[in-house]
Write a structure and sequence with these properties.
- The protein has 120 residues and is mainly beta.
- Helices cover 12% and strands 48% of the residues.
- The protein has 1 helix and 9 strands.
- The chain has one helix at 2-15, and strands at residues 24-30, 38-43, 47-54, 57-60, 66-72, 77-82, 94-99, 102-107, 110-117.
- A 9-stranded antiparallel β-sheet has the order 4-3-2-1-9-8-7-6-5, with no helix packed on it.
- The longest helix is centred in the N-terminal third of the chain and has 14 residues, at 2-15.
- The radius of gyration is 14 Å and the shape is globular.
- It starts with a helix and ends with a strand.
Length: 120
């Protein structure tokens, strides 16, 4: 019975990612010891999906809940705003902005500095 739930969960997670999303483009990691989440940007040429590692497991952010204001994979540069659509199982609203080793994630009043790497 449990294996069927796992298989169903994997299938549903895969279905949430658009067909154009074929690989990891970039990943954000907060500085060690921070309370941040790791974020994986999936796609080819442009961000097709965002996958976050949360304490309850990985979650894909719903399409339309985030806005990519600026993104340059070659420069490891990002400016992104995410607004929680009212779902308590998703992370709180945040912004992610910066380049390379100096990317800031802002969640409310908390600011976490981390690295965006796009060397996949």
């Amino acid at each position: 019975m449990k294996i069927h739930r796992v298989i169903s969960a994997v299938f549903l997670a895969a279905a949430a990612i658009p067909a154009s999303a074929t690989s990891t483009m970039c990943a954000f990691e907060g500085s060690s010891g921070s309370s941040s989440y790791s974020i994986e940007f999936i796609g080819y040429g442009e961000i097709g999906a965002i996958l976050m590692s949360l304490p309850r497991g990985p979650r894909s952010l719903p399409a339309g809940s985030y806005k990519v204001l600026e993104f340059d994979e070659r420069k490891s540069k990002i400016n992104l705003a995410y607004r929680n659509p009212g779902d308590p199982s998703l992370p709180p609203s945040f912004t992610l902005e910066g380049i390379g080793n100096n990317v800031r994630m802002t969640i409310g009043k908390e600011r976490i500095v981390g690295k965006l790497h796009c060397d996949f």
